[in-house]
Design brief:
eight-stranded mixed β-sheet; Rossmann fold; 33% helix; alpha/beta; 19 strands; binds cytidine-5'-triphosphate
Length: 401
């Protein structure tokens, strides 16, 4: 695939080099083009060393091989990715002002265009920027929402360039509709921990980071699924194209899951749901030395969402649970498969040297009624790819599951 990568003058411009690398590793050809300000943040040498191609940075330079260069490059590319896109570049693109190499190529290009904004929150939220983004959307540009986090100006808010892996995945999605093995499927995924309130300042929870569930949401969205992600309290950016519902407690998660379960083809319960909650959450903070002091907490059991889902399973629905175990992993996973009535259990070891909670790595075994059908180890994104692939195989082999 031929990738044209447009870079504008944001501090996030250095991340464009990482993005270019992902395509190069796949065997794609990448040509970068830059606005004059982008060159204050990245050097042509970096981009040219990575891609092996000259950077298009001067509209008035002649390239006799490609003819009028901005027309030649615009025809050459299968996708034009503009990342990062500043507020100023977005404004120019929205109004067709072609006064720099990236904006000129934008006007000349008929390939799919993917744009990843990066800027300060106030600039992003400004009505002018929002109006310009709406114009670009209406013009057919796919926009990857910026993430929330600490910005270069030390503000915390929305405006960070989306994850490079999300931009990469979105580009593959735009250019490879054929790989959409879950197109038309609705997939419901839960992720992260739940928090069970003790009083207004304290809660019971667990160490789940939500990374595995978010990686699954990304893997299924990349394969064309319509993904709804129900997330407990986690600090993770929403994967591109995924609908996210934030919840706090197990009962909020249960309500959100049951509201979506009926119309879901596949349900994956990656969340680490708290089994118990305080029987009574105090309305006021429990104070030391008073009758409300916190010496013991009476617990009451939460609904088992997975078990309930399996009891109410719709025809053709495929339900996957997780089992995080500190011992006898496969034995517990088999028992959970039967006790809960799931179609598949993703078994992962926790504790000891297996730091699953919070880590970017995981090692799993996939257990179905026929035994362990696959294992995978590596990054949570790689593991999620295996899970998505194996569920597809199971659904192809047993379409009425
Ligand atoms: N689960 C759920 N609702 C709960 C508890 C767990 O839906 N109240 C789901 C989890 O999302 C996971 C699976 O059940 O997919 C297994 O969760 P786990 O905590 O490993 O098992 P438990 O059923 O809680 O059993 P135990 O704590 O005894 O291991």
């Amino acid at each position: 695939m031929n990738v044209l990568l447009g870079i504008s003058g944001s501090i996030a411009a250095y991340k464009a080099a990482d993005l270019a690398r992902l395509f190069i590793k796949r065997g794609d050809s990448v040509v970068c083009c830059t606005t004059p300000n982008a060159l204050n943040f990245v050097t042509p040498l970096t981009l040219e060393s990575l891609t092996g191609n000259a950077v298009y940075r001067d509209e008035f330079a002649l390239d006799h091989a490609r003819g009028v260069e901005h027309i030649g490059l615009a025809k050459w590319c299968d996708i034009f990715i503009i990342a990062p896109a500043t507020a100023s570049l977005i404004a120019k693109l929205a109004h067709g002002i072609a006064d720099n190499p990236v904006a000129t190529l934008y006007l000349a290009c008929r390939a799919p265009i993917l744009l990843a904004p990066a800027m300060n929150t106030a600039m992003l939220e400004h009505r002018a920027t929002q109006r310009n983004l709406a114009t670009l959307r209406a013009d057919g540009v796919t926009i990857i929402e910026p993430a929330c986090g600490l910005l270069a100006c030390n503000d915390i808010g929305k405006g960070k360039l989306a994850e490079v892996s999300d931009i990469f995945a979105a580009a593959l999605r735009l250019t490879h509709p054929a790989r959409q093995q879950y197109a038309g499927k609705k997939v419901l995924i839960t992720a992260g921990p739940t928090r069970e309130r003790i009083d207004p300042v304290r809660y019971l929870s667990n160490f789940s980071s939500g990374k595995m569930g978010f990686a699954l949401a990304r893997a299924f969205a990349n394969r064309g699924a319509d993904v709804t992600l129900i997330a407990g309290p986690v600090a993770l950016a929403t994967p591109f194209g995924v609908k996210r519902i934030d919840v706090e407690s197990a009962s909020e998660m249960a309500n959100a899951v049951f509201a979506h379960a009926l119309r879901s083809d596949i349900i994956i319960k990656a969340a680490a749901v708290a089994d118990y909650r305080p029987a009574l959450a105090a309305q006021q903070k429990c104070k030391k030395g008073t009758t409300q002091a916190l010496h013991t907490i009476e617990l009451t059991e939460n609904i088992d969402i997975l078990h309930t889902l399996c009891q109410q399973k719709q025809a053709g629905q495929y339900i996957v649970g997780f089992a995080a175990e500190t011992e006898n992993l496969l034995e517990h996973a088999q028992q959970k498969l039967q006790r809960k009535g799931a179609d598949m259990i993703v078994a992962n070891q926790v504790g000891g040297s297996a730091a699953v909670f919070g880590s970017d790595q995981n090692a799993i075994s996939l257990v179905t009624s026929t035994g362990v059908i696959a294992t995978a180890a590596g990054s949570k994104d790689d593991v999620a790819e295996t899970i998505a692939e194996q569920i597809h195989i199971c659904l192809t082999l047993h379409p009425n599951k």
